[in-house]
Amino acid sequence: MSKLKQNQKKILNRRARYDYEIHSQIETGVILKGNEVKSIRLGKVVLDNAYAVLKKGEIWMMNLYIDLKNYNKKFSSLDNLRPKKLLLSKQEISKISQNLKTNNFTMIPLNMHFNKKGFVKIDLGISKGRKKVDKREYKKDQDWKRQKERLLKK
User: Fold this and answer.
1) Distance between alpha carbon 81 and the CA centroid of its chain, in Å?
2) Three-class DSSP labels, the chain
3) Confidence of residue 36 (pLDDT cuts 50, 70, 90)
4) Closest to 86 measured CA to CA, from 117, 107, 102
5) Residue 2: pLDDT above 60?
6) β-pair type (20-30, 120-129)
7) How far apart are CA 61 and CA 124, in angstroms?
8) Alpha-carbon dihedral of residues 140, 12, 30, 72, nearest 10 degrees?
9) pLDDT computed for residue 137 by the predictor
10) What structural domains does the chain harbor?
11) What average pLDDT does range 42-53 have in this prediction?
12) In this predicted structure, what is the pLDDT of residue 1?
């Protein structure tokens, strides 16, 4: 059991907060295959280019790269970027779809982690893209916060 706890780290999307202004956050479940879960435990996941899409009343995670080299012997069936269905209630989906249509928001994964029961969860951010000027301001704010912490430590 202790071995599993050591490997259960959060996989972060570091570019998300820089490129997008996060308005709200939702924790969702994901439908995965066994070899995908093994790769996630080892941290072989790339969240940087991933995004979520609303299709026919369901939310799908697109472009989520999970490295499956070590677990799938048949290279013909190897699909690292296959769409993954996110598990949300109909009420949550309707709220999200309303936000997407009216406010022009996008859905991006902020992080991927294991909950207490051992299920893979994704924190999905409902967000709006930042422009270049906004990114500069965000960077200045982050630098100022870091500098302030350094000064307070002394």
Assistant:
1) 14
2) CHHHHHHCCCEECHHHHHHEEEEEEEEEEECCCHHHHHHHHCCCEECCCCEEEEECCEEEEECCEECCCCCCCCHHHCCCCCCEEEECCHHHHHHHHHHHHHHCCEEEEEEEEECCCCCEEEEEEEEEECCHHHHHHHHHHHHHHHHHHHHHHC
3) confident
4) 107
5) no
6) antiparallel
7) 10
8) 140
9) 84
10) 2-153 (2.40.280.10)
11) 90
12) 34
* Phi, psi of 153, deg, nearest 5: -70, -35
Token digits for 108?
A: 């991006």
Residues sharing a CB contact under 8 Å with residue 70, sequence separation 6 or more, in sequence order: 39
Q: How far apart are CA 112 and CA 24, in angstroms?
A: 16
From 79, 77, 51, 78, select the one nearest 64 (Cα to Cα): 51
Number of neighbours of residue 153 by Cβ within 10 angstroms:
6
**Number of residues in the chain:** 154
Could you tell me the CA-to-CA distances from 78 to 29, 35, 69, 116, 130 in Å, in that order? Answer: 23, 11, 8, 30, 35
